[in-house]
Design a protein that fits this description.
There is one protein chain. By secondary structure, the protein is α/β, with parallel strands linked by helices. The chain is built from 17 helices and 15 strands. The strands form three sheets. It has a six-stranded parallel β-sheet, sandwiched between helices. The chain has a six-stranded mixed β-sheet with strand order 2-7-6-5-8-9, with helices on both faces. Strands 3-4-15 form a three-stranded antiparallel β-sheet, with no helix packed on it.
């Protein structure tokens, strides 16, 4: 963990270097992924079965690749009742939040008499990647599948690494209405969704987080299919004053550190004594945390405490452009409203990031690695397409055609010019 003081002469350079440090994704990953994608594209399902044996140490056949409806139902029924209730509660809130995002079709006639507008249609088929390595992630199922279903996507195909499927994951799939589940993970799962492989039909877009291999695969298949984003290690910035309970803030910092040794947790505070208490609380909680090994590595290698006036916090947050930022303050909007670059903002002392991960209703699939500077979190819009609509009457066409011809000729595109001019009775 590194400490920075805003009033140190070298603060700007040192903090900028800290923000720019690369976390995760070794260069060799791209080479491995390229070979995996090529194998699945050429060999299809045979490659999936071989990779399951070689990478996952699981023997599968084409018949056992798909999780059947009976297994989904039995797994969901095996989920603890309180977890099933929480899943249903979360699914309802996520659905309600995302349904409010639905955009309206538009149709209007402009001053030239041209009929213009646009319409929104759902994607036909979406693939959802659900990690299965470090933990079971029913929330990932909900955050990806529920908005897709709310958008009206007809086919939602879920892939997850082979092995024992956690009851909570199957319960979440059932709650989200996902009935197509395949036992395949890693880059090979992305390839199967992009190109198709045996019984797995290709999709139009792939969403959902994964490890470095999954992320690299999504990058390489982009263009064949759409993708949501390139997920990097988790991030949180907590802006807090000395009036907070240091144990609360320490827990918030560790909530992201426990995801991955490459995750990043940053505290910004104007109270040096409070910062020391938070650091002590982090150490105390690490010793009792089941995920302590990962969290300790993350805090040690990528964590930071910044002592700075709180009025400087929005600028520092924008420099980091984090996945999550908490403002654990009274009247948090005063500072939060000045932030331009963040995936999600959590306001007040009783709004920990974990609420957003599960039940707030907003989406937890968010931009990482400073991508919040130019992108947004997953939403209903990721599962919709907008199509432009244009209709000209003869009079409207006559109003637009001369400028069309002039511009086409200026660009050296005579066929474009002719397609307008010929309707005007001109030869070109």
């Amino acid at each position: 963990m590194r400490r920075f003081r805003f009033d140190d002469p070298g603060f700007s350079a040192a903090f900028s270097a800290f923000v720019a440090e690369r976390r995760g994704t070794p260069d060799a990953v791209d080479v491995v992924v390229r070979d995996v994608l090529a194998a699945v594209r050429v060999e299809g399902v045979a490659a999936l079965l071989r990779f399951a044996r070689d990478f996952d140490k699981v023997e599968l056949t084409e018949a056992t690749l798909r999780v059947g409806p009976e297994e989904i139902a039995a797994g969901a029924a095996a989920c603890r009742p309180e977890v099933r209730e929480a899943i249903a509660f979360a699914a309802g809130r996520i659905r309600a939040y995302h349904e409010r995002q639905r955009p309206a079709d538009q149709h209007f006639v402009d001053e030239a008499g041209v009929e213009l507008g646009w319409r929104w249609t759902p994607l036909e088929a979406v693939g959802i990647y659900v990690p299965g390595g470090r933990a079971a992630y029913p929330s990932t199922v909900l955050m990806n599948a529920v908005p897709a279903a709310a958008a009206g996507v007809a086919r939602i195909a879920m892939v997850t690494p082979p092995g024992r499927l956690q009851p909570a994951v199957l319960a979440a799939a059932q709650a989200a209405g996902v009935s197509e589940i395949w036992r395949v993970g890693g880059a090979q799962a992305v390839a199967a969704l992009a190109y198709g492989a045996g019984p797995i039909r290709p999709v139009d877009k792939i969403v959902g987080p994964g490890n470095a291999f999954v992320t690299a695969a999504k990058r390489q298949v982009y263009g064949v299919v759409g993708i949501d984003a390139l997920a990097g290690p988790s991030e949180i910035v907590v802006v807090a004053d000395g009036a907070n309970d240091p144990d609360w803030i320490a827990a918030d910092l560790l909530s992201q550190a426990e995801h991955d040794p490459a995750a990043q947790s940053v505290l910004i505070t104007d109270d040096a004594a409070f910062a020391g208490r938070v650091e002590a609380a982090v150490e105390a909680q690490l010793s009792a945390l089941a995920t302590g090994d990962d969290a300790r590595a993350s805090w040690r290698e990528h964590g930071a405490v910044v002592i700075a006036p709180l009025d400087e916090a929005p600028g520092l947050v924008d420099l980091i452009a984090p996945e999550h930022v908490e403002f654990a303050l009274d009247a948090p909007e005063r500072l939060a409203d000045r932030v331009r670059h963040a995936g999600a903002i959590f306001l007040g002392r009783h709004t920990p990031e974990a609420i957003g991960d599960y039940v707030a209703g907003s989406n937890h699939v968010l931009p990482t690695s400073r991508a919040a500077r130019f992108s947004s979190g997953l939403s209903l819009y990721d599962f919709l397409k907008r199509t432009s609509i244009v209709k000209c009457s003869p009079a409207a066409f006559a109003a637009l055609a001369p400028a069309t011809v002039a511009l086409a000729e200026a660009e050296g595109l005579p066929a474009h010019a002719r397609s307008a001019a010929i309707r005007m009775g001109q030869s070109r």
